[in-house]
Specification:
- The protein has nine helices and 13 strands.
- It is an alpha+beta fold.
- The strands form three sheets. A five-stranded antiparallel β-sheet has the order 2-6-5-4-3, sandwiched between helices. The protein has a five-stranded mixed β-sheet with strand order 9-11-10-12-13, with helices on both faces.
- A hairpin with a 2-residue loop joins strand 4 and strand 5.
Length: about 240
Amino acid sequence: MKNLFIFIALSVLFSCAKKEDTDIKKGIEGADIKKVVSEAYPNVNIENIKKIDENFHEIIINNQIYYATNDGKYLIVGNVIDLDTKESITENTKMKQRIAVIESIDPNNMIIYKPQKSNHIMTVFTDSSCPYCQKLHNEIPDLLENNVEVRYVLFSRNGNTVDAYQQLLSAWCSEDRVSSVEDLFQGELLDESNGCDNPLDKNFEYAGILSVEGTPTIFLDDGRIIPGYQNYKKILAFINKAN
């Protein structure tokens, strides 16, 4: 039997609406968890539900992870850790969620730096006006040399009303996007663009779904996340840590 430890990250424990004794008995014998939660919270959209073990179900509501006791009595917000494997069940689910979102981004809407052979792919939410993004950009040659493909998702972290957004737009709408992005990271200013079809607003939505709070934010192809700037050696060490 798995030993699970629940860390209540938000210190929130919700008791579902009280049921009649007959319903509680049914829950103890094997409640219909989706039905129980839907009846207690009729306005929520349950995206996915799966049984973890004889004690808990994992429930995805609005892309957030919750846990319900299998007797249908409690809905819990927190981080579940398997004490046998020392793995976070919650983080494993988050990694799968991140992979699904990253894979839904059209590669044609990215700036991609490919090595001769790609052993790993890192997807980076980057803003050319961010000094730490500029530092990370300087690590690309060493990453490519180590067979790490770098995919940029251009992301104006302060929204679409700032000069940085217009500069990213100008780069995207230029004849040579890669060269224009390079110019931005070298501190040059581009001529203002009249605009074109571009993914910048959609990228902002992706950033919200992925809880990107700053730049650069790096997503590895296994769903792990590296927040902030790291030099290429630390990135490689992080990549190889799982292998």
